Amino acid sequence: MEATKPFTLDEAQFDQSTYLGRVRHFLKAVNPLTLLYTKADVDKATALIASWKDNGSKCPEGVTDADLWAARDVRDAVVHPDTGEPIPMVFRMSAFVPVNIPVAGGMVLAKATAPQLFWQGVNQSYNSGFNYANRNATVDVKTSELAMSFGLAVTVACGSAFLGGKLAARIAANPAVGSTTKSIVSRVVPWFAVAAAGSFNALAMRYKEAIDGVEVRDHTGEVRGVSKKAGVNVLTQVVATRVVLPIPIILLPPFISDLVRAVGPVGRAIAASAGLGLAADLAVVAACLWVALPLAIAIFPQTASIGASSLEPEFRDLVGSDGVPVATFTCNKGL
């Protein structure tokens, strides 16, 4: 049995320098049971962590490291790391999968242009709220800027879906294109549209992190200033996850559904019932979504580390409060 790591607020429970450690970290974050946490649960967890601090960063009597990690899980599932305020329930990481199951199902199953545009609009509207709620909140965003970003994000999403649908239809109608190519194109185009829209959505909702910069901290946890280069770095990582995330959500389900239908008895049962076929397709989408989210967002740590040499000149040759030269800075990447 794995020993419990000594509790700390300076780093995550699992090693964030490894992909497996980040996956384990985010698997806990996407647990939908955390949506059941109440304000009383958060207050209790916060008080327990405070008692650890008051005790000289040592476990109080009768409290174990496991208890403290569990308390931190409760707090982190609800509270934004920058603002210290609760994240709206529907935009928490643990709500992403339940909310997106019907949305992803709609995008995968929609064939005509109008339904595709509708589901793209719904998807990007939710993504806009999610991106904003889980942003690096050390950057101020005006309401007018937020409204403009939202409008651009949804417009580009619908435009990508519309143009992608037209392209797929044109290829499907071309007699010179083989059936295998047509099948592949019909499934790749929705992924491309979602990836492009998701990437632009992240940029539209969080572009000020690159323009105004984000707060960076040294190894002692002290804020040492605001860096535009750090903002560009974290935004690039966020966009990369938006490209990867739709692959198992949009690209894989149709192929998996075909494999399910190829199984004799199962395929015949699905063919005989439209309702069973729809249920099977949604089950495949839900399974892919649940697996995809932690795997995609674990590509990069939530707390980004950036070498001093990669930041602006004013961040080089700094010394921490402990007298140690600052070689690496960190900032909240967001989700």
UniProtKB/TrEMBL annotation:
A biological process from GO: amino acid transport
Pfam families: SFXNs
UniProt keyword Membrane, yes or no: yes
Membrane topology: Multi-pass membrane protein
Subcellular location: Mitochondrion membrane
Keywords assigned by UniProt, alphabetized: Amino-acid transport, Membrane, Mitochondrion, Transmembrane, Transmembrane helix, Transport
Domain of life: Eukaryota
Transmembrane regions listed in the UniProt entry: 234-256, 276-300
GO CC terms, sorted: mitochondrial inner membrane
One of the record's GO molecular function terms: monoatomic ion transmembrane transporter activity
InterPro entries reported in the protein's UniProt record: Mtc (IPR004686)
Keyword Transmembrane: yes
Family: Belongs to the sideroflexin family.
Protein name according to UniProt: Sidoreflexin
Organism of provenance: Cafeteria roenbergensis
